[in-house]
Amino acid sequence: MAITTSIEQVPSRKISLGLSLLRHIQHDPLGAAKQLQQQYGDVAKLNILFRRIYYFFSPEAARQILVDHQSDFVRESRQLKVFASFQGKNVLTTEGADWDRQRRILTPGFSPKRVAGYMDLMNAAIHDSVSAELPVEPGKTAVVDADFLTTRVTMDVILRTLFSYATTQAEAAKVSIAIRALSRQSMRELFWPIIPPKWLPYPGRAAKLEQLKIIHTLIDEHIQARTSTNTDSKQDVLSMLLAARDDQPGAGNASLSAQEIHDNCFVLFAAGFDTASSAMSWWIGLMATHPGIVEQLRQEITAANTTALESIARLPLLNATIKEAMRLYPPSTALFTRVAQKDVVIGDTPVAKNTLVVIPIWNLHHDARSFAEPNVFRPERFLPDAPAIPRGAYLPFGAGPHFCLGQHFASIEMALIAAHLIQHFDFALAEGETLPEPVVDLVLKPKSGLRVRVTRR
Ligand code: HEM
């Protein structure tokens, strides 16, 4: 049953269990959030299965929750437990002192300076995977699914930067299928009434164990190969993880444990490739439908007259197109929640302890109060001399202490992919295609696939 009926007929606080609403949120989070905003304005107060859930739709509120009141909110423990049952205890699945320590040790490894050191690995992966998937002879055309292409490229990038390892098409496909199947299973488990113990037979368990084995084996093999030799001269993320130390006074220069290194490799896979793949698929779709911008990008690259990756990755219009693509199609839209640790007031709304608050990134990014003509692709919004964007209105990488650890990594990676594609290919949507509707499949995906005609220049 559609949510419209249930929430229009009965004020939200009187909904008995809110099960139809829960189902709507589970199956169509974007549609549900849109409807809640239309109906309730800036704050929607819901009661689902006796749980208080507040949606905050204004940028000021998002900012207050994530930044100003950061110590009054934590990530939901149930969500962390479900993710931990897949990934172990890493920077994404822990809270408190454990998270603090891991985040502190990992952060320097993802600084802009350190990420610049991964650029050559990224670039090699981009060249190899694009050449393997797209025509290499000038004038030749291929019709490809954008998601298939970007999955291959971003999987290559993450494997190359993590382990200095050049994967094959078959392996990239196997690993990405496993990660996505695990992501979907974790989404399902989030909505189950209990977190099933390991021994209990439950729907999807056998497939989950099989897919987990694929990822664990891959990670173990690379860590073992690296640690079995005494010399590690690599410039990759694994090298960084093995060398990272806690330099906080009193921490004794401690490293991550072997298990933590494994579990953090897992999250870098899980958080790192599908998000960037989603962003680049939508970017390709937007380039295919905005040939004038493609021309401007080519002029920008030509005018820069450089092959230095660091300069290319910083080109303003190139970056603006990627930022605007992530505004229109934010990859991480679902599950952006926090739980109040104590009674707190957000704006003028009292939020009682234990309330689950939702920050609906999609709605924030499409709010006409922050972005004029919010559904129109306008990269100039993100050029250096554009008017400032309201704080809290643009959150593709989150904000506050949990903001995306891989933000610089992803930004550089996406700029290099975009520059490579723009320089070597012309894009158009495949015949009869329009830009598809987005759908949340953990990250934001094109609902009906996005087929593009790509011609080598
Ligand atoms: C376009 C690409 C990406 C997007 C849109 C994205 C988005 C996000 C968002 C919104 C969060 C915050 C979640 C929250 O506050 O609850 C996050 C966290 C995180 N991201 Fe990303 N991400 C991207 C790429 C990456 C990459 C490439 C990596 C690693 C190589 C990465 C690693 C992480 C990790 C480890 C966290 C957890 C941080 C913490 O809780 O301390 N992400 N990401």
Automatic annotation (TrEMBL):
Say yes or no: keyword Metal-binding present: yes
Classify the source by domain of life.
Bacteria
Q: Which UniProt keywords apply?
A: Heme, Iron, Metal-binding, Monooxygenase, Oxidoreductase
GO MF annotation: an example = oxidoreductase activity, acting on paired donors, with incorporation or reduction of molecular oxygen
The record, for Pfam families, names: p450
Q: Which cofactor does it need?
A: heme
Residues the record lists as binding heme: C404
**PANTHER family documented for this protein:** BIFUNCTIONAL ALBAFLAVENONE MONOOXYGENASE_TERPENE SYNTHASE (PTHR24291:SF50), CYTOCHROME P450 FAMILY 4 (PTHR24291)
Please state which protein family the record places this protein in: Belongs to the cytochrome P450 family.
Q: What protein does this entry describe?
A: Cytochrome P450
The top of its lineage is:
Bacteria, Pseudomonadati, Pseudomonadota, Gammaproteobacteria, Pseudomonadales
